[in-house]
Structure formats: structure tokens, C-alpha cells
Amino acid sequence: MSTPSAAAPSEPTSAVAPAADHGAVPAGAPRRWGALGPVGLVLAGGVSVQFGGALAVSLMPRAGALGVVTLRLLAAALVLLLICRPRVRGHSRTDWGTVVVFGITMAAMNGLFYQAVARIPLGPAVTLEVLGPLALSVLASRRAVNLIWAGLAVTGVFLLGGGGFSSLDPIGVAFALGAGAMWAAYIVFSARTGRRFPQADGLALAMAVAAVLFLPLGIAESGPKLLDPTTVALGSAVAILSSVLPYTLELLALRRLPASIFAILMSLEPAVAATAGFLVLQQALSATEAAAIALVITASMGAVRTQVGRGKAGVAGN
User: Fold this and answer.
1) Cβ atoms of 304 and 265 closer than 8 Å
2) How many other CB atoms are found less than 10 A from the CB of residue 165?
3) How confident is the model over 1-59, as pLDDT tens digits?
4) CA–centroid distance for 148 within its chain
5) Is 198 helix (H, G, I), strand (E, B) or coil?
6) What's the whole-model pTM score?
């Protein structure tokens, strides 16, 4: 996969190279765009994955939760392997260990989440899942201000969930929280994989690992249903929207964006899910839900501003 951001992660000026022709680019512009670029990648990935999730829920009656995950991982692995054509030679044992753990993490994250949405509504499931990245942001952050943004995001997340989850299926809640823990692990190993493998090669290999691991589960639950042409087509669409696009964009973003900032940006997921529900399912937002979305967006924008301000400070200090 030929992606400029992946090909030159250490060259933030490449994002604004055309502007150099004007001869009046401020000294801090390249790094400023280098900080904003990954944020755009994360947001685009979030929109894609939520609309893919809505499609996946509609596919579950045809293939079951495990069947949907299997189709999603298999189709995503095939697409990424064909596009990236990753090298399998020349990697160290540590490289392969990292990519295998990344694949296991992706398989677990997908499996747990779809088991959750099979038992509880999509909104609360996403809300509970996002607590994993938020916890990571608190643990990984080295700046006190990020704790404030994380606190705002957590408040918004709980408001979006109606202020409590006692009425939900406890098994579904447990699956969603487990998916959140795997999401936090995904952030860590996605960043490590991106540093060890060029472009999206590591992602393609990890996706193949996840697909192979999940295939027996999908066959056991759905069997011949996985071969139905309509089911395969819908599963492939889910794979593109929920796996190929968002995972690739997030992997590229994590090469330039600190894990703590990335984790707080993930708090936008419930807000995007609510928007997708309104546009696709005509689900109206209550005043509480609107306030929750405002809090989450405020936290995310605060995290972005903190990151950009840090980049400007670094330029000024040089």
C-alpha cells in the first residue's frame, strides 16, 4: 500500500510540501499540519467503523455474531494481503511476536464486541467499550491536562449511556467491557506494529492471524450460511467499513499521535454512533444525549488542542 503518511512517518513536512511554492509558510506550519493530519485519520476511521457496525448488526440474523466476525476478518485479511503484499522474510522473532499478539487482540476485540451487541443495544455497547481507551489515556498520559479531558469524556460517555447500565444484560455488559480492554490493547500493539513493519504490512499480517484464529468459531456457529452470496457480499462491505479503512487509518495515525491523545479521541465513537443511528435508523437524540455528545466532542477537541500546542511549543524551543 503506497501511502505517503506511512512511507515517511518521520517527515512531517511532506504533508504540506506543496505550500512551499508560496514561499511564505511559517516555520511552525509543517509540524502543525503533522499534528492535525493524524487527527483527521482517526476521525475518518471512527465514522467508517460506526456505519460498518450498523451494517453488521443488520447482518447478524443471517450469519450470527461469530459468523459476521469471521466474514469481516476473512474479507479484510484478503483485501489487505492483496493490496499490501507484505514481506514474510527478514523479520525478527520479536517482530513476529508483536504481529501475532496484535492479531490475537483484533480477533478478541471483534469477537467480544459482536457478542455484546447481540445482547445489548449498539449505543450502550459502544459506550461501555470506549471506557477501555479512556482508561488507557489516563494511564499513559504524562500531562495533567489530559486527565481533565479524560474526565470530561467519561462524564459524556456515562450520560450517553443514560447515566447507568443496570437494566442491561450483565453478560452483554461483560462482553462490552472485555471488548474495551482489548481495544486498549489494540491501541498499544497497533502502535508497536506500525513501528516494526513498513506501511500497513504489519496490519495485513495481523489481520490474517485474526482471521485464521476466528475461522473455526465462525464455521461452528454458522457453517454453510457463510457461503451464501448475499451474506458474503454484506460481510465484505462490513470488512471494508469496519476493518480495512479504520484499522489502516488508525495504524498510520498512531505513528505520529501519542497513545494518550489517540485514546481520548476514541471517546468520539459513541457520538459518531449516535449520529449514525439518527441518519440511518432515524433515532432522535434526547437533550441528555445531546449534552453527552457535546461533552465528548469538547474533550476530544481539547485533546487535539493540547497536542497541537505541544507541537508549537517544541518548534518555539528549537
Assistant:
1) yes
2) 18
3) 332 222 223 223 222 222 233 333 333 333 443 444 777 888 888 888 878 877 887 78
4) 22
5) coil
6) 0.70
